[in-house]
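Structural biology now treats backbone shape like a language. To illustrate, our science desk offers a sequence and the tokens encoding its fold:
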Amino acid sequence: MSGRSPTAQRLFWTLVLGGCASIRYGAVALAATASVCVAILVHRLDRPRRFRSLVRRIARRHAPTLALRRRQERFLDAYGNMIEDGWLRERDYFVERTVLPLIEERGYSDYAEPRFEEMVEIVERVAHAQVLPDERETPEDGIAYERYCADLLEEAGWDARPTGASGDQGCDVIAEKAGLRLIVQCKRYGRPVGNAAVQEVAAAALHWSGDMAAVVSNAGFTPAARKLAGTTGVLLLHHDDLLDLVPERRTGRRRAPATGR
């Protein structure tokens, strides 16, 4: 019996027990056994629908975040092509880390691999259907984009100022809040930002005695940039994230002596 599916096992034992009962109770037991077998089969046939419904419920609980990440990680490049690489990675990550553990917990572990793409499609539809506030129009010019990011930080309660175009040592905006200093490099790009920006802002944080360092972009980040950011403590942010940014001293970040500048 160990090689049979749960449904086959339920049917087998229902027939065995029902057959035994029918010896004593006759037609009534046979009718009851048939009804139970039909119910088991209907429940089995309805399993794919219940699986899809479960995945939708999981995705809808995170719909605002998914929709925001979808907007942040999709952008037009300089040639007018929609670049979705970042969103596709984010979508798969959500399915792997959030959806799969829950469906396995609910008894759908056999669906994890063969129905992975179906789960991804459900997440895509949920994210696409979620209504978000209109996106602010971001400046095209790099210097104006730095000012725009500083203004967003000001809205979030930071004391922020752009450093200017020259002599910034990889720092475009300096912001302070709750006694902590944030060093920001702003990238208004038509492609994902690479790890060079992470290296630059990490060095700038040391130069400017920063407690936090971040690269802010409209266009997402490469896997290499994300990997390096994870080891250096640099935040990788979409400009939308600045309105919710809170002061937090990053692990490993040390304030340099004031005389070192």
Remarks:
- Confidence is low (pLDDT under 50) at residues 251-261.
- The radius of gyration is 27 Å.
- The domain at 142-246 is CATH 3.40.1350.10 (Trna Endonuclease; Chain: A, domain 1).
